[in-house]
Write a structure and sequence with these properties.
This protein has helices at residues 37-46, 86-96, 102-118, 136-147, 170-180, 195-212, 230-240, 260-272, 281-287, 303-308, 332-342, 348-357, 360-365, 389-395, and strands spanning 4-9, 18-23, 26-32, 49-52, 58-59, 62-67, 121-129, 153-159, 184-185, 215-220, 247-251, 276-279, 312-315, 381-384, 399-404, 407-411, 417-421, 424-428. The chain is of the alpha/beta class. It binds fe (ii) ion.
């Protein structure tokens, strides 16, 4: 029995409109539109529910590879970030931490998840701060991961915001978070007291991940200092411990300012170690270069060069309305849109690559199974009011239907304007 049949779906690289049949939470079949009216009707009456995609673009759900659910929607508490820097953001978060409660952190995170679902983000890798003695935020997000499992996948990273060596008991608290069920080992080597401590933290954390069979995702080199080269150590430890494909370097903003000769040595080593890189264009365009006069550096990793070296790159939103970023609605197409500008990736294929960076590449970073629009994959998809990957990035269009395991969990009306010119009404959908 077909639970859901999506008809007239525009899929990437398919000339014909397609039908997607879903059963028991999985995609059963993806076939061209059935032209025989009788056969089509028979199939539609067999299906419990049919959605007409009207020729619009259907994609697997968006994936946010890097987010902070425990800090989100806390903007202005207890004060705003006046300098706009990473370090003032960390200071404000430290001031807020003592007053945080289980209830308020959970309510904010839950509200954000509703936004995420409405935007078609059905997978989020969220870092969770392990610097508090109580590990309250860890408990909150573990609860939410379970409570929201039917609607959205959360992969949690144990993130020692104050430094795993720099703060007292940092390693013990992070280990405790893993014991509670956090999925991934995090780190912040550039925030440790010295370069040597940063390197030591990477070694310890990668060894911990190897012992426990876990993935690694570190905030790494989120700095404008070209000499911040912790990605080199992270790459080395990945190779040494056999963690290839299971380690991600988040931010890597110092790569923007590094010497190009050095980068030409670094990228092949990263490719060899199958490193995943997570770029956060919205937040790092806002935070980096704040100490510069003019010209001001962009401070993003070298995404076109990484992709050319066959290194997997996915994108993250990082923050929404918190001490580090005052804006956002958790729209991954806004992230890709900023990437197109700030990374000089406005070519047709480059825009498609950015769309992949918020979908399929994220699935690779997170080591997801059953992701995609192939038979056997989870019946998770989004119908966009757009016709292609490029148009989706240009328009940030309405998510007409968000489907999870074959069920519609969010709907949005089409965004059309009616312009009145004299006596004539003109429908405007911003498509030529
Ligand atoms: Fe982050």
């Amino acid at each position: 029995m077909i639970d859901l049949l999506v008809v007239n779906a525009k899929l990437h690289n398919k000339n014909q409109l397609m039908q997607i049949a879903c059963s028991q939470g999985k995609i059963l079949e993806v076939s061209p539109k059935i032209h025989d009216a009788d056969a089509s009707m028979a199939l539609q009456t067999q299906a419990r529910k049919t959605i007409d995609a009207q020729g619009y673009f259907v994609t697997p759900p968006f994936i946010d590879s890097h987010f902070h659910l425990d800090t989100t929607l806390s903007l202005g508490l207890p004060r705003l970030n006046q300098s706009g820097t990473l370090l003032e953001g960390i200071k404000i978060w430290g001031e807020l931490k003592p007053s945080l409660t289980h209830e308020t952190v959970k309510a904010r995170a839950k509200q954000l998840l509703n936004w995420s679902i409405a935007k078609g983000n059905l997978v989020i890798r969220s870092h969770v701060d392990t610097s508090n003695e109580s590990l309250m935020a860890v408990d909150v997000l573990l609860e939410l991961r379970n409570e929201m499992r039917e609607f959205i996948d959360l992969q949690l990273v144990a993130f020692p915001q104050d430094g795993v060596l720099r703060s007292k008991n940092g390693m013990a608290r992070l280990t405790c978070a893993l014991d509670k069920g956090v999925d991934v080992v995090g780190g912040i080597p550039h925030f440790e007291r010295t370069m040597a401590d940063g390197q030591a933290s990477i070694r310890l954390l990668c060894e911990l991940a190897e012992q426990r069979g876990l993935m690694v995702d570190m905030h790494c080199d989120e700095s404008d200092d070209p000499h911040s080269r912790h990605i080199e150590t992270l790459t080395f430890e990945t190779q040494r411990l056999g963690l290839q494909g299971r380690v991600a370097g988040s931010h890597l903003t110092s790569m923007h300012s590094m010497d190009t000769y050095y980068v030409s040595k670094l990228l092949p080593l990263m490719a060899e170690a199958k490193m995943n890189c997570i770029c956060n264009p919205l937040v790092n365009m806002s935070i980096q270069g704040r100490h510069d006069t003019y010209p001001k550096r962009r401070g993003l990793m070298r995404v076109p060069e990484l992709l050319a070296a066959r290194i997997n790159v996915s994108l993250g939103h990082d923050d929404v309305m918190d001490p580090w970023y005052p804006m956002g609605t958790h729209d991954m197409l806004e992230v890709a849109h900023m990437g197109a500008h700030a990374l000089h990736m406005t070519g047709v294929d480059q825009q498609a690559a950015l769309f992949d960076a918020v979908t399929t590449n994220g699935a690779k970073t997170l080591n997801l199974e059953n992701y995609g629009l192939e038979p056997g994959c989870n019946a998770d998809m989004v119908i966009l009011q757009a016709s292609s990957k490029q148009e989706a990035i240009r328009l940030h269009p309405a998510r007409l239907f968000v489907i999870r395991r074959g069920k519609v969990i969010s709907r949005m009306e089409k965004a059309n304007a009616t312009v009145t010119i004299g006596t004539e009404n003109v429908n405007v959908d911003f498509c030529p």
